[in-house]
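Fig. S4 source data, part A: sequence.
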Amino acid sequence: MRIIRKVAIFSLVSLITFGLGVTVRRGGSATWQSFYEPSGWQVLLKFENQDLAGLDEQSMHTVECAITKTTGAAQQTQGLHFVPRIFRKISNSDGTLHYILVEESPLVIIPGEETVRVHIFDTAGIILSRTQFSTGNRRAIRSMQIRKNYGVKPEALILDVESWLGGYDSRHFYAVIGHELRLVYLYDTQPYCDQGSRFHIYNGTYTTGPRVNLSADQWETELQSTDESRVLSALTWLAGHHWGADAVLNDPEDQSDSAKDINLRARDSVRRRLADLTNSENFFIKSTAEAVLNDK
């Protein structure tokens, strides 16, 4: 009896061991791999500060897969293929350290436009914001860099943009304000402070920069801020062209932006602030405030 019991116990243990072995062999490999495989964020960190556009094919594939795993954003979006360009640390206007990932979908045909996609992360890899915007019709990015500039206190994303078949080359300055990227200054070879040359922003075929959906009161708060980047963001928004109510519009938000623009320009408090800003020692603030005041 004892022998039979021992044989039974041995057989049961053998079956359990065999079953566990088969299970581990079939599914354990994937579990083991997922446990030890680096996350998309860990892979991205290995490429920090590198020239992503200059990567070899295998490295580019690795980075694109890491981006998809980290952001959930497919590289192919509505016919646009995004190429990773920049991944590095950047400080926002408050001095808080973030990471920025910049991708570009190049200009392919004319008429057409380049599209930029930007993700802002905290230092642990948590997505704080994401935005996608155009550089303008028939405008291609010639160079892209992140560096400090005397006119923008935090580090700025700077895009040098060339215009094809008419128009003017331009330099776009973007800063991280809070958790979001904003256009804070735009310089054309034909300065937009000239009468009749306000640049188009957030609408039409010459849309430029990420859309910032603030109320008129919120824009005035930004204008009155002691944070120069917020001031520049508000000034650049005011200096931009917003479609009038008599324009043919497909997007009702354009009408809203036009109404906000008219509302702000009519406020005495705004005009006093603009007059004060024309005396600023910051050339970007001074020149943009003058552009807004001189525009009729």
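Fig. S4 source data, part B ends here. Strands lie at 76-77, 80-81, 83-91, 97-105, 113-121, 127-137, 139-149, 152-163, 170-177, 180-188.
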